[in-house]
Design goal:
single chain; 11 strands
Length: about 325
Amino acid sequence: MGLLTIWGRALATVAVAISVNATVVMNPAMAGFPEKPITMVLGSTPGSAPDTLGRIVAERMANVLGQPVVVENKQGANGSIAATQVAQADPDGYTLMLMTAVHSITPTTRNDLKYDFEKDFRGVGMMASVPLLFVVNNDLGTTDMEAFVNRAKAGDIFYSVPGIGGIQHLATEEFSKRAGIQMTVVPYRGGGNATKAVIANEVQLFFAGIPPALPHAKSGALTALGISTPERSPAVPNVPTMIELGYEGLTADNWHALYVRSDTPDEIVKILADALSEVLQMPETGKLFLNVGATPWIKGPDEQTAFGHNEVKRWRSVIEAAGLTF
């Protein structure tokens, strides 16, 4: 046996040993994932849009993955308290973050973030498209947008938001500028409370995430005048889009998506993404989402990550164009 042949076999043996060792090192972290409950952290209150949609998805992902998916509400600071917790968790796929459009806005509006949205997180997948519904107090007597704008020119309209600098705040400010009116913002804790404030006439308007406002619009407790997506929502088919009302380009989608730490292994992200996609394609998920005005929206991990980065650029340009400071 020649020296080269012997050396070649020796190299092959080493290569196999390295391969086996590598397999032994990698597999314990991912074998059988998930082997314990998963936590889905979200940055808003119980009853809010993220809470409602998150619980629908968590229950069904648990069935697909064979492990509980526990929803944890960590509201405050435009969702940054929740995001900080996830950014500091182990990158093992057992801690998910349900992010919304506000997480692509805060990189511009807050200078106290303890994480970098674009560097510290990667997408698992998109979850839902969630329009904003423009609802007003019935006592105003304004049954269409033209009447509301004329009434608002008196200068005594207050509007609620679930947080300064969120998508509801930016969309309302953009509307005010386009309509040529001035209104006063009043922050509340969560979309549910911001909606109740309009019903109680503490404020007169909320450009609301549709889940907390929809039942009240359907019952007649509030009047819905417009919706923020380019197309009408099947949940409120008689409500015109802002584009139809003459506000070309005034669109906003309070998208909901799942994220993990950016250094989470690809194999684990794929397992989570496949489970999420399966859940979103279930007919019952679509029906439950529609009940609260949302629509399932599927994007894979890479597509979602790129989408989130583009949203940061988009909202930064909106804020700069409107001259808003925080």
